[in-house]
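Consider the tokenized backbone below.
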């Protein structure tokens, strides 16, 4: 697939969206920005709700691809998750189908498999230890459930309509990891841009699910499908490990929040809005 020139970036005012606004243009993309709220310094950004189907259709018209980051990014009452993450994602896919957009990169989440036990063993990078992308989904929240829905929706639109998607199960994308758990699931912003670029340009993806993280020494999941797209992560959380462990202590397997991929989302997730 030739590198798309114009990409609609939904959720462009959010944390990850803000990072990608700065990084993706270097790959040659012209970004069309969309968010529920205005974006400071971006007067041409589209301000629209995912429930506004007419506005969505106009927003996707003429773009080569979509990176879909919009929605609620933490736990919330089911009714809010339903409207923003489930119905909103459906509306976006319908708009893309109606306007003939060929590819979406969908921001899924590790919380779609959050109740999966984290790997055990002395060799975290042993392929026999890493969690494969086809592990059964075990969402840890309504938020994680909405990401499972998004992956199924993407598969349906590929099978039914030929609309390609790369679903990226993002760990945590911040300038640096802020917790001991994040040492295993962290994706640097630079690696995030590399992965999104690979997802936008790889050929014949159909519907491909990948894990989104850097090449962390303490990695929990298998990046094989991400690498198959052409993704080559360059960063590792390990330089932050000594300081974080000294401040917070190491992971305790007896702690349910430490024993599952979803961390504290399995028992006491942060609630949106925050």
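A designed sequence for it:
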């Amino acid at each position: 697939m030739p590198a798309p020139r114009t990409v609609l970036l939904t959720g462009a005012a959010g944390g990850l969206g803000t990072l990608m606004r700065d990084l993706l243009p270097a790959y040659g993309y012209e970004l069309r920005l969309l968010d529920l709220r205005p974006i400071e310094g971006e007067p041409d950004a589209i301000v629209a709700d995912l429930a506004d189907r007419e506005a969505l259709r106009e927003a996707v018209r003429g773009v080569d691809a979509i990176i879909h980051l919009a929605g609620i990014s933490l736990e919330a009452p089911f009714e809010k998750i339903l409207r923003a993450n489930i119905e909103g994602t459906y509306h976006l896919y319908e708009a893309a189908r109606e306007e003939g957009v060929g590819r979406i990169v969908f921001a899924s989440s590790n919380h779609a498999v959050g109740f999966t036990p984290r790997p055990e063993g002395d060799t975290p990078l042993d392929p026999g230890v890493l969690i494969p992308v086809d592990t059964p989904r075990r969402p840890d929240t309504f938020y994680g459930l909405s990401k499972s829905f998004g992956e199924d929706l993407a598969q349906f639109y590929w099978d039914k309509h030929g609309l390609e998607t790369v679903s990226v199960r993002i760990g945590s994308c911040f300038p640096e990891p802020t917790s001991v758990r994040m040492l295993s699931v962290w994706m640097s912003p630079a690696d995030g841009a590399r992965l999104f670029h690979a997802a936008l340009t790889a050929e014949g993806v159909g519907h491909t699910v990948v894990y989104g993280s850097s090449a962390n020494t303490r990695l929990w999941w298998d990046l094989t499908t991400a690498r198959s797209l052409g993704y080559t992560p360059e960063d590792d959380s390990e330089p932050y490990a000594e300081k974080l462990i000294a401040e917070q202590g190491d992971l305790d397997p007896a702690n349910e929040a430490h024993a599952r991929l979803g961390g504290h989302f399995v028992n006491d997730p942060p609630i949106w809005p925050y």
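Residues 33 and 44 are 8 Å apart (CA to CA).
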